[in-house]
């Protein structure tokens, strides 16, 4: 068990630790599971701690907990290990004016703050989870209690899109390409749930829509939609589609626009920057810019 914690990034290690402590307390009957899970009416009422505890809750010390910790390490751990606020998501109209010393200073700051930047990203995803699950409850009456598992699945999807061809070892039994990992987890849950199988057969044969009243089905629908949203917006749309990686071409374009008096704003990139760039970077960029 001690080997499990080796080389685990700090945020993921803290999250896994809180999940393990919660599981131990539940197994020892020091706290009740029902007091920690996400119930919108209670969370938005006086029991606000559920917004936090629902991301750390587990049913107790069991094989299921070990699998949850394994998923945390292979999803959140890998995303955190490769996560960094790089220059592709920062405003190029500021970055392109930096000299080499300023670039080095910025890179040092980004490397030093990887953990807090990743935590900020997790908080953003968590807020989208709370909003989605609350809407699901108030609109359809379907409730998802464990938000931590939902966050873990979103990060699993995020990592599978970032590194689709990397192989993952499943308990030493077999290997699987990461791009298929989220779908394999969903398939295992379907196999284990007789209700989902029956509802799916009714949907195919009779057109019975009770399949979409199952919370497990919505669990994977939400995790896939949110996982794709956060990956697509940050890793593809902001970092690639709306960013030119060639410095000379960006500089030539800026000079040409200035020569003809054209002021152009990429509204999509601007919106995504304000969404993804942690707020302290705007202060740091201003300070680095003034250091000549």
From TrEMBL:
Transmembrane segments: 118-138, 168-191, 211-231, 267-285
Record key words, sorted: Endoplasmic reticulum, Membrane, Transmembrane, Transmembrane helix
Database matches in InterPro entries: DER1
Entry membrane topology: Multi-pass membrane protein
Compartment(s) where it occurs, according to its Swiss-Prot or TrEMBL record: Endoplasmic reticulum membrane
Any one GO CC term of the record: endoplasmic reticulum membrane
GO biological process: response to stress
Keyword Membrane attached: yes
Claim: Disulfide bond is one of the keywords in the record: no
Main location: endoplasmic reticulum
Superkingdom of source: Eukaryota
One family name in Pfam for this protein: DER1
Job of this protein: May be involved in the degradation of misfolded endoplasmic reticulum (ER) luminal proteins.
Family to which this protein belongs: Belongs to the derlin family.
Name of this chain's protein: Derlin
Taxonomic source organism: Candida tropicalis (strain ATCC MYA-3404 / T1)
Top-level taxonomy: Eukaryota, Fungi, Dikarya, Ascomycota, Saccharomycotina
């Amino acid at each position: 068990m001690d080997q499990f914690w080796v080389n685990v990034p700090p945020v993921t290690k803290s999250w896994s630790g809180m999940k393990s402590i919660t599981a131990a307390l539940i197994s020892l009957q020091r706290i009740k599971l029902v007091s920690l899970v996400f119930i919108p009416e209670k969370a938005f009422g006086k029991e606000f701690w559920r917004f936090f505890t629902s991301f750390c809750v587990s049913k107790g010390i069991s094989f299921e907990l070990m699998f949850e910790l394994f998923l945390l390490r292979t999803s959140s751990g890998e995303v955190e290990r490769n996560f960094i606020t790089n220059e592709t998501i920062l405003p190029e109209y500021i970055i392109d004016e930096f000299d080499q010393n300023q670039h080095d200073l910025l890179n040092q700051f980004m490397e030093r703050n990887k953990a807090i930047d990743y935590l900020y990203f997790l908080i953003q995803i968590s807020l989208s989870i709370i909003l989605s699950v609350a809407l699901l409850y108030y609109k359809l009456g379907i409730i998802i209690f464990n938000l931590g598992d939902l966050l873990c699945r979103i990060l699993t999807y995020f990592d599978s899109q970032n590194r689709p061809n990397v192989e993952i070892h499943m308990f030493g039994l077999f290997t699987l390409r990461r791009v298929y990992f989220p779908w394999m987890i969903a398939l295992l849950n379907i196999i284990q749930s007789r209700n989902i199988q029956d509802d799916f057969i009714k949907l195919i044969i009779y057109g019975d829509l009770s399949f979409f009243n199952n919370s497990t089905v919505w669990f994977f629908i939400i995790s896939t939609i949110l996982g794709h949203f956060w990956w697509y917006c940050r890793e593809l749309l902001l970092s690639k589609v709306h960013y030119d990686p060639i410095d000379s071409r960006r500089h030539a374009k800026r000079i040409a626009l200035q020569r003809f008096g054209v002021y152009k704003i990429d509204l999509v990139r601007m919106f995504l920057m304000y969404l993804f760039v942690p707020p302290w970077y705007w202060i740091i960029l201003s300070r680095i810019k003034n250091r000549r």
